[in-house]
Amino acid sequence: MEYIHKCSRSSIDSRSYIFPLARNKLLARETTRMVEASSQPNIVVTLEPNAWSVFYFDINVANTGNAPAYNIEVNFDPPLTNAEHREARQHSIPFRKISILKNGQVLSSNLCDYNQIKGKTYTITISWSKKANSSERDFNQYEYDMTLFEGVTYLGARNPLTQIADQIKKIRDDWRPITQGSKKIKTDNYSSSDREKKE
């Protein structure tokens, strides 16, 4: 009986050692997994109205994740149509391939006139690597419906910086003729002798 009591006590002692050890290993493994999951790049591509004119659209590529992304490839189905001003300069669609995008970084470029993409629904497929020389790739695929922007109107500038720039441009345009001497400012000048006559 004493032997059984000693055996059960030693098994309890070993369990009290093994369970915390196993729990700590599990906790360490889950913590590592959570750290890896939280430090992931996530690439998102959108087509949005230009800050200066709602008739033109920009393509924006953003890394909304917490780590840099490498060797990014962006595909649109159906393919995007290049703007006439871009075709004339022999520019291709921007941001099809990007070597690196830091976390929080956004790349933006004018793309085309709204009429070229109006009413279309694009399937956007984005792929990237977590490391520069890795062949393992992550993917993000979603539909982007351009009918979202039909009938949308804006009053004034959507961005305060655009509004400030517009006001400064108006001031510059108002003062340009004066600084070039083509417009005179009417001023009433008084000298000290004029003041003496007035008194």
From TrEMBL:
Protein source organism: Klebsiella pneumoniae
Name the record gives this protein: Uncharacterized protein
